[in-house]
Write a structure and sequence with these properties.
single chain, about 110 residues, alpha+beta, N-terminal domain of TfIIb, 4-stranded antiparallel beta sheet, 4 strands, elongated
């Protein structure tokens, strides 16, 4: 990825989301501070079992779209411009197959 500077956090987020959607990867904000931004694959993370149910005690069969994907992009504000400082991890799931199942894509299309 070439070094490109952006004047605002919104610009860099929009640019990265547009670039990665072409590759079949949907990015979401993992965490954001005033001068640092972390974006992650929307398949990253895992669900918490809040009610401590097992497969035997659960009433319905469930599934998860989360795959624990470690892919992450770090952006920082340096000298008044936003730049990508780190792209870490790789995807542990197939990418680019069908984006219709990604809720982040469906919500951005309706806006």
């Amino acid at each position: 990825m070439s070094v490109t500077a952006f004047s605002s956090k919104e610009e860099i987020v929009d640019h990265l989301k547009d670039q990665y959607i072409k590759e079949g990867v949907v990015l979401t904000t993992k965490r954001s501070k005033e001068a640092v931004l972390w974006l992650k694959c929307d398949r990253g993370g895992s669900y918490r079992n809040r009610y401590h149910l097992s497969d035997e005690t659960r009433q319905r069969k469930t599934s998860s779209r989360l795959a624990g994907c470690p892919f992450e992009i770090t952006c920082r504000l340096k000298d008044g411009v936003w730049v990508v400082t780190k792209v870490a991890g790789s995807h542990n799931h197939p990418v680019g197959i069908d984006l219709a199942g990604h809720s982040a894509v469906r919500t951005s299309e309706s806006e």
